[in-house]
Design a protein that fits this description.
348 residues; six-stranded parallel beta sheet; 12 helices; four-stranded parallel beta sheet; 43% helix
Length: 348
């Protein structure tokens, strides 16, 4: 039989109520007595029953995480950061997905509410008005990679606009003028910000916007592949292609390879997110590296501040993390002026 709270109290020479106050952190205890209790609990290998502790302090010890998906390198890295931070704070994660559908988002929020102490939510496809009408929980919530304007919750986002603008400017500085863009999901805030960054850079360069150089896409390999085939069928002759994320960019690379077009000699390619897989494409992918792990760590920190000091008046936090352009071998100056690249890979 394992040690009990009575055993801890006896070894520490304090009352059972003092042990309870220390281990459940319900009210202040003199530092000397606190140390005696912690040392006794450690020596005996005692840990309070999680269910009993939950009933005592009205807390579950769990943090809810609601994401569009959990598969793929991006979400794996994000969840890894959350899991590590949660473990360091003796918390556990309860994970659910929305699949970018409003009905599933609503159902997941209802299922998570009252089962966790706080929530980290990624919902780039939802408007703030949708979110505020659905999220009725009294627990703290931090939104990640979600529209911040009008949300009464803390938010942490990447600087998607500036990242796409920097990548486009990188290609412009190399001498490209016909730069195509494979868009992300049309209802996703981060995808629209990346599109806006591309357009702003093109306009600032005085090149204007050519709708034939923009093609619909998603954040998938298949979408990048299909979008590139559409561009080639249009015969719009881009010398560079930006994809809204790295997965789509890998699909772009595949489609160009099948069309016997060389990267970067015939067409330069860039992506967004900075996934490790981009190091192993042929050639290695130029990308915008987003601090995926850091955004998870900051989200946990903001949530814990709300949980630990609920009585504090704090302004809603708006954090926007900078991103980094990583230039690799998939981008280079365009072919000499006057050379037209055909889908067969031959020039004339």
């Amino acid at each position: 039989m394992g040690a009990t709270i009575r055993d801890v109290a006896r070894r520490a020479g304090v009352s059972i109520s003092t042990v309870s106050r220390v281990l459940n952190d319900t009210c202040p205890v003199h530092p000397d007595k606190r140390r005696l209790v912690l040392d006794a609990a450690d020596a005996l290998g005692y840990a309070p029953n999680p269910a009993a502790r939950s009933l005592l302090n009205k807390k579950t010890g769990g943090l809810g995480v609601l994401l569009p998906f959990v598969s793929g390198e991006f979400f794996s890295e994000f969840l890894s950061a959350l899991d590590k931070a949660a473990q360091q704070n003796d918390l556990f994660l309860v994970i659910s997905t929305s699949h970018r559908r409003l009905s599933e988002f609503t159902g997941a929020m209802q299922a998570l509410d009252k089962r966790v102490d706080g929530l980290i939510v990624m919902a780039p496809e939802l408007l703030p008005s949708d979110i505020t009408s659905i999220v009725r929980t009294e627990d703290p919530v931090v939104f990640v990679n979600t529209r911040a304007e009008g949300l009464p919750f803390d938010t942490v986002n990447f600087d998607n606009h500036q990242g796409a603008r920097a990548l486009t400017q990188h290609l412009l500085d190399l001498g490209h003028k016909r730069i195509a863009f494979v868009r992300g999901p049309s209802d996703a805030h981060d995808a629209m910000e990346r599109l806006r960054g591309y357009r702003d850079a093109m306009l600032e360069a005085g090149l204007g916007l050519d709708p034939t150089l923009e093609v619909h896409g998603e954040y998938t390999l298949e979408a990048g592949y299909a979008a590139t085939r559409t561009l080639l069928a249009r015969n719009v002759q881009p010398t560079a292609i930006i994809a809204a994320n790295d997965y789509a960019a890998i699909g772009v690379l595949r489609a160009l390879h099948e069309a016997h077009l060389r990267v970067p000699e015939d067409v330069s390619v860039g992506g967004f997110d900075g996934l490790n897989s981009g190091l192993y494409t042929l050639p290695p992918l130029t990308t915008v590296r987003a601090p995926i792990r850091k955004i998870g760590q900051i989200a946990i920190t903001l949530l814990l501040e709300r949980l630990r000091y609920p009585e504090r008046e704090r302004a809603t936090q708006r954090r926007v993390l900078p991103v980094e352009l990583v230039a690799r071998a998939s981008t280079a100056p365009p072919a000499r002026p006057g050379v037209r690249i055909r889908a067969t890979g031959r020039s004339r």
